[in-house]
Amino acid sequence: MKLYDSEVSGNAYKVRLMLSLLDLPHELVPIDLRAGENRNEEFLRLNPRGQIPVLLDDQRIIWDSQAILVYLARRYGGERWLPLEPAEIAAVMQWLAVAENELLFGLARARAVKRFGRPWDFEACQEYGRAGLRVLAAHLADRDWLACGRVTIADIACYPYVALAPEGEIALDDYPRVMAWVGRVQALPGYTGMQGIESVT
Amino acid sequence: MKLYDSEVSGNAYKVRLMLSLLDLPHELVPIDLRAGENRNEEFLRLNPRGQIPVLLDDQRIIWDSQAILVYLARRYGGERWLPLEPAEIAAVMQWLAVAENELLFGLARARAVKRFGRPWDFEACQEYGRAGLRVLAAHLADRDWLACGRVTIADIACYPYVALAPEGEIALDDYPRVMAWVGRVQALPGYTGMQGIESVT
What residues of chain B lie within 8 A of the CB of A146, using their CB? Predict the structure, then answer.
């Protein structure tokens, strides 16, 4: 298995984390985003959207971090990570949607403004990200995990940009329930971190 | 089945279209977004994100349009609409991701600027939306459907904001392959339209 990767990307880290939790051997292929390696012809043949991560497995090319999570869960994780019962898979998908909306366009973009000088409206991104954190916090008030009463890819999809929120100047101290959940993810067997994520355990 | 709905929302229309294609009887509960009915306490108990659509089925509450598509496909559509083979479900998920990124934050936001006076950067939204249309067009160059060689929820997820793109002043004439695919969706048995979507057939 080969993962086209960038060390600083929370979306690529989603996949590295899942590979590590599933204990799947893989090769990392670093793509230099600053040098535009994600926009050259060779890379665009892998992913027409010009984004990392991309996974190569058995001649199959899978792009998009969350599609890769679904692929890995289905192929290597069974229903433990992605249940198939209609209401259960929908519960997981709801949090994948939060990860792609409030967390990506809020928390991740706020971080990208500060960390990579991206041109987005910092305060609007922070506010959108905080809306996501409030939804997470309320949901986690009486739950340990986001869906199905156990860890699933819902948690893995949401974790990276939540844990990286302080890089976008959003303190997680304001969300103790979210902090506790961050700690639970960090305590999973096979957990691996990334630069910029502080250990809360 | 009860769908909390708004006539003008492309995300709610995603679900109406799926319900119609599956020929599932349902009741529509209109939520007045301008009057803020999506932010009152009663509604926030259904969906803490304060968004339509929300589906009620057998005491289950499912929020998020794409989670609802997954739910309906799993519960009422079998593998026809959402295959479970790892590479196939991942292929569907890739286009759900495009629908939540370039199409929602590009095409849908450009439309919302023009149609509802929302405060986003119109040209940036248009450009992001066009990037999505280019990816769709390239993919559809030698395919009829987005994933798995047949119509799936990938098409239903992407269709609404593509078909509504002209309301955001993005002409689909520039993307003939996309136009042809729009026509194929419109020709599906059980298809239903919405105000703002022109018939291309």
Answer: none
- Domains of chain A are 2-79 (3.40.30.10), 86-186 (1.20.1050.10)
ipTM of the shown complex: 0.97
* Lookup: tokens for B161: 């904001």
Predicted local distance difference test score (pLDDT) of residue B56: 98
Per-state percent for chain B, helix, strand, coil, to nearest 5: 60, 10, 30
Mutation to test the A interface, candidates B11, B15, B38, B49, most A Cβ within 10 Å = B49
Under a CB-based contact definition with an 8 Å cutoff, are residues A107 and A161 in contact?
Answer: yes
Closest chain B residue by Cα to residue A57: B87
- Give the pLDDT of residue B188: 98
Tell me, what's the pLDDT at B137?
98
d(CA B33, CA B43): 11
| Amino acid letter, residue B94 | Q
Cβ atoms A58, B90 nearer than 8 A: no
CA distance A174 to A140: 14
Edge to edge, the sheet with strand B2-5 lists: B27-30, B2-5, B54-57, B60-63
pLDDT at A156 over 90: yes
The pair of structure tokens assigned to A192 is 């691996």
User: Would the pTM count as exceeding 0.95?
Assistant: yes
Which region holds residue B28: left if phi is over 0, alpha if psi is between -120 and 50, else beta? Answer: beta
The C-alpha atoms of residue A52 and residue B11 are separated, in whole angstroms, by 27
DSSP states of B16-36 as a string?
Answer: HHHHHHTT---EEEE--TTTT
Helix (H) or strand (E) holding A63: strand A60-63
Q: What is the pLDDT of residues B184-200, one digit of tens each?
A: 999 999 999 999 999 98
Q: What is the pLDDT of residues A115-125, one digit of tens each?
A: 999 999 999 99
